[in-house]
Amino acid sequence: MRNAMATMLLLSAAPLLAQDQPGEAWLELPEVWPEVGQAYVVNLHLNTGAQEPDTLQMHLNFDTAVLQLAFSAATGFPPVFTNPDLALGGSLTAAGTTDLQAVHPGENPGQINILRAGGSGDAWDLSGDIDMLQITFHPQSTVPTQITGEITVLRDASLVEIGAPAVIAATIGIPPIEDLAEDILAGFDAADANGDDALTLAEVQTLIPQLTADQFAAIDSDTSGGLSLAEINGAAGPAGEGEGEGEGDNNTNGCPFPKGATTFADFLNWLAQFLFIGMAATVLWKRRTPLS
Ligand SMILES: [Ca+2]
Ligand SMILES: [Ca+2]
Question: Which has the closest alpha carbon to 138: 75, 174, 85?
Fold first, then answer.
């Protein structure tokens, strides 16, 4: 379970691929980890399918203890915080679209509301994967946090709904080394391009583009420049070992089952095969025994 959670964390921390369902929105994240004091620019995409939308309503939520918008200024009354860093995406700008409202409400600084109230005959002249917004955050911390939200309304020029209400979610922040190790473990074979049973920094970065040399070094305990399964298992901690076993933390090198999920899993696999062969042999033996 933890493995799966860690994988989810990383998958969402990596730049997200385009969604293929009309009506979906998603966040494209930078290929670097967030840093306190460094602008962190997130791009919001929207897939309108083949339709040219005319009406849009969506919102995003984020934790202001971890993420703050780069700049906010109150305008009008009641105060509405309009953020210049909520820049329109390239494709919207190219289409000459200036009527998208993106507001950062003063009464709820952890929310961005995005609205485009159109009407029949007032459709945007664009479709497909649209760059909606570029949102500049200033990370206050690098702990993993989520940006969530949803599209509630997306309609075409005939006011036909495009897709269904869709959830928007991404996790950003730097996972602990043991979570990183678990994700490397899960993608080990795919990342080991040259099949030498060790992962170089470049190979690991095909899996986790944001992984830094320092994070790599934290797992490369023998400083060989390559990560072996044993090193990654060691960095992954006891999470991968049997939850009910309780033996992982106390394992030493002298133990018949060295610390690591793979080795223990191999043992279980061997045990299952042993039992299966035993059962098969019993069945065969019984079949060969004449009925009396
Ligand atoms: Ca390799
Ligand atoms: Ca090594």
Answer: 85
Residue 225 dihedral angles phi and psi, to the nearest 5°? 85, 0
Q: Are residues 106 and 244 in the same domain?
A: no
222 Cα: distance to centroid of ligand 2 (angstroms): 5
Å from CA of 173 to ligand 1 middle: 27
Q: Which of these, 4, 6, 12, 1, lies nearest to 147 by C-alpha position? A: 12
CB 101 within 8 A of CB 75: no
Query: Does 287 fall in a domain?
Result: no
Number of structural domains (the chain) is 2
Q: Tens place of pLDDT for every residue, the chain, 292 residues?
A: 444 444 444 444 444 445 678 999 999 999 899 999 899 999 999 999 999 999 999 999 999 999 999 887 776 676 777 788 888 888 888 877 778 888 888 888 899 999 998 876 788 888 999 999 999 999 999 999 999 999 999 999 888 999 999 999 999 999 999 999 999 999 999 999 999 999 999 999 999 999 999 999 999 999 999 999 999 999 997 755 433 333 333 333 323 333 333 444 444 555 556 555 555 555 444 444 444 3
Q: How far is the CA of 214 from the centre of ligand 1 (A)?
A: 19
Q: What is the rounded radius of gyration, in angstroms, for the C-alpha atoms of the chain?
A: 26
How far is the C-alpha of 178 from the C-alpha of 188, rounded, in Å?
15
Examine residue 35 and state whether it is found in any structural domain, yes or no.
yes
Distance 122 CA to ligand 2 centre (A): 60
Q: How far is the CA of 232 from the centre of ligand 1 (A)?
A: 13
Q: Is residue 245 part of a domain?
A: yes
User: Residue 30 Cα, ligand 1 centroid: separation in angstroms?
Assistant: 26
Report which bound ligand comes closest to the CA of 203: 1
